[in-house]
Design goal:
Blueprint (H helix, E strand, L loop, with lengths): L5 E6 L5 E7 L7 E6 L7 H12 L2 E6 L15 H13 L2 H16 L5 E6 L1 H12 L5 E5 L16 E6 L7 H11 L5 E4 L16 H17 L1
Parallel strand pairs: 3-4, 3-5, 5-6, 6-7, 7-8
Antiparallel strand pairs: 1-2, 2-4
Helix pairs in contact: 3-4
């Protein structure tokens, strides 16, 4: 099957139409997954992740959370790209991003009840907050989100798991794990030895295949059970 994903438009709660990268499931549909971007926009890595979920039986959609500031934003993993992405993330209110994730959830819900959320980096923080603040999320998987520690006291409404790289220079994995455990002893926090920030991202300087495969296996198990 040669079908590739497509860019669609979804209306946010404020009526603003943002773009989203969408791919139907390749195999009999198990549910929907909202894939939440890193700071780099809906780049080839996010699109590759959408395709991976589609191949695992999930209709997947990745909302472009920075569209209100810059349509079709893509950044490289260099200093300029990181600075641009951080600026967009900081200028995007969390509630606005969560509203767009909720709109992506609603888009998927029209096609089947179960909707899960997975997010990476910036999206990892938003995946945690989606589990805590949004209704109708079946399960959430948060990868190396820098705000998880800050919001660890919030209570997830759905099963959630957290993935962290041991060598991530910006996120102290043990501190995040302790903060989550203090409030939610039942929430698994997985720390991947020898893996850094962005280990699921297949750029050569970040990718850790062993950690990425194990984290994806754990996430798929969680979503399949939800």
């Amino acid at each position: 099957r040669g079908e590739m994903g497509e860019t669609i438009k979804i209306a946010g709660a404020d009526g603003f139409e943002f773009t989203a990268y969408h791919e139907p499931s390749f195999t009999p549909r198990k549910g929907g997954v909202v894939v939440i971007q890193e700071i780099f926009g809906i780049d080839r890595h996010v699109r590759a992740d959408v395709e991976r979920w589609a191949k695992m039986g999930y209709e997947a959609v990745a909302p472009a959370l920075f569209d209100r500031r810059q349509r079709d934003f893509h950044a490289q993993h260099d200093d300029a790209g990181i600075q641009a992405g951080i600026a967009h993330a900081r200028a995007t209110p969390l509630d606005q991003a969560l509203g767009d994730i909720a709109a992506a959830r609603d888009f998927l819900k029209t096609r089947g009840e179960k909707v899960c959320v997975v997010g990476y980096c910036y999206g990892g923080s938003l995946a945690w907050l989606s589990a805590c603040r949004l209704e109708g999320i079946a399960a959430a998987s948060s990868y190396y989100g820098s705000l998880v520690k800050q919001f660890a006291a919030e209570t997830p409404k759905a099963p959630v798991i957290v993935h962290l790289g041991r060598t991530d220079p910006g996120i102290h994995a043990d501190e995040v794990a302790a903060a989550v455990a203090q409030h939610h002893a039942d929430v698994p926090v997985y720390i991947y030895e020898g893996a850094g920030h962005g280990f699921n991202n297949q750029s050569p300087e970040r990718y850790n295949a062993e950690a990425a495969d194990l984290a994806r296996h754990r996430t798929l198990e969680l979503f399949d059970r939800a």
